[in-house]
Amino acid sequence: MSSPYRDLLSVRGARSFVAAGFVGRMSMSMTGIGIVLLVSAVTGSYGIAGAVAATLSVAYAVGAPLSARLADRYGQRRVLVPLVLVNSAAFALLIASDLVGLAVWTLFPLAALAGATQVSLGAWVRARWSHALRDRPERLQTAFSFESVVDESIFVAGPMIVTALSTGVHPAAGLAVASALTLTGSLALAAQRGTEPPPRPRQEGHHGGVLANPAVRVLVPVFLMLGVVFGAIDISGVAFAEEQGHKAMAGLVLGCYALGSAAAALWYGARAWASPLDRRFRTGLLVLAVMMIPPVLVTDLWTMMIVVFFSGLAISPSVIPGYGLIEQRVPPHQLTEGLALVSTMVGLGVAAGASASGRLVDAYGSSASFLVPLGAAVLAAVVGVAGVRGSGPSITKVTQQ
């Protein structure tokens, strides 16, 4: 590991909260697949399974920013412990009701409860980095780059783990392990009081949620479109490999994409940047839009692997400065909420992108489906560039109080 990352992990308490966060948020790439595999195995319906998984996703998108707001106001430990206990109970009841054959409708409120109590743990860990590096803010981009690599590794390993457990051990095993990982990592994170950001009650003059911040109103649709890119690439990559007669190599195609993003994150975090953060953000979005063009044109599997690797290189230089802008321009008492909100927007975008590209695959084939990530990347660039430039003084850095 290069020196900037060794130095980063030498920060007091960092290794412990990084490890806890990694374990706790491993489930973010496992839960949806776990639900689909369990419910479809018991009911025989992928339609019902998808609807239950969607219910959890929508509830998570609503609940995660609200729980993050409470964490900002009252402290992470006071909020996380009761939430994760309720979350574990909800998943246990969801699994049990499925296995014992209760009425299908009972799965939906339990999925909603599980989703509403699932926190965006990556945002909570990034908030800890912001607190731990408050005297060395120049190292925060390295921390956010590192967390992007962690996210990439989770999204590579998680689906393989949950699929292996659900198909090779028991249909409920994948979801049960995902819930256990959430419980273990969350409690471990809550126990680390030394690195916990202090509670910050709402300050006078700041009314409403984090969406009152003009910077957040720009970043929310951008991160939603970035999620569409991620979800659409996944579906399009699998469909392309299948059309080429090598469906088993779909994982390798997507792995090349993730590898490109991870490599870019490591490179980005190791550099000392002189250019302003907002300029890097705009540049990253523009490069991403350009790099989404080649996959539409490629007709060969091996060429596609090379192309998506280079497309992946454009992901992290867009995402990392986006998180940096949240940290820079959102008041301290709303930081976790802001980070959680854009993270959940990515999740919603992934679902929307997967759905849209899947429909295009069915109707026109994989080449047409690659137009979804291209269109989303272009829209993200337009909104990001116009929004950041057009917000003027209202999007300037918030003074840290």
UniProtKB/TrEMBL annotation:
<protein>
    <submittedName>
        <fullName>MFS family permease</fullName>
    </submittedName>
</protein>
<keyword id="KW-0472">Membrane</keyword>
<dbReference type="GO" id="GO:0005886">
    <property type="term" value="C:plasma membrane"/>
</dbReference>
<feature type="transmembrane region" description="Helical">
    <location>
        <begin position="368"/>
        <end position="388"/>
    </location>
</feature>
<dbReference type="GO" id="GO:0022857">
    <property type="term" value="F:transmembrane transporter activity"/>
</dbReference>
<dbReference type="Pfam" id="PF07690">
    <property type="entry name" value="MFS_1"/>
</dbReference>
<feature type="transmembrane region" description="Helical">
    <location>
        <begin position="338"/>
        <end position="356"/>
    </location>
</feature>
<feature type="transmembrane region" description="Helical">
    <location>
        <begin position="79"/>
        <end position="96"/>
    </location>
</feature>
<feature type="transmembrane region" description="Helical">
    <location>
        <begin position="16"/>
        <end position="40"/>
    </location>
</feature>
<feature type="domain" description="Major facilitator superfamily (MFS) profile">
    <location>
        <begin position="215"/>
        <end position="401"/>
    </location>
</feature>
<feature type="transmembrane region" description="Helical">
    <location>
        <begin position="211"/>
        <end position="233"/>
    </location>
</feature>
<dbReference type="InterPro" id="IPR020846">
    <property type="entry name" value="MFS_dom"/>
</dbReference>
<feature type="transmembrane region" description="Helical">
    <location>
        <begin position="304"/>
        <end position="326"/>
    </location>
</feature>
<dbReference type="InterPro" id="IPR036259">
    <property type="entry name" value="MFS_trans_sf"/>
</dbReference>
<keyword id="KW-1133">Transmembrane helix</keyword>
<feature type="transmembrane region" description="Helical">
    <location>
        <begin position="248"/>
        <end position="269"/>
    </location>
</feature>
<feature type="transmembrane region" description="Helical">
    <location>
        <begin position="172"/>
        <end position="191"/>
    </location>
</feature>
<feature type="transmembrane region" description="Helical">
    <location>
        <begin position="281"/>
        <end position="298"/>
    </location>
</feature>
<keyword id="KW-0812">Transmembrane</keyword>
<dbReference type="InterPro" id="IPR011701">
    <property type="entry name" value="MFS"/>
</dbReference>
<feature type="transmembrane region" description="Helical">
    <location>
        <begin position="46"/>
        <end position="67"/>
    </location>
</feature>
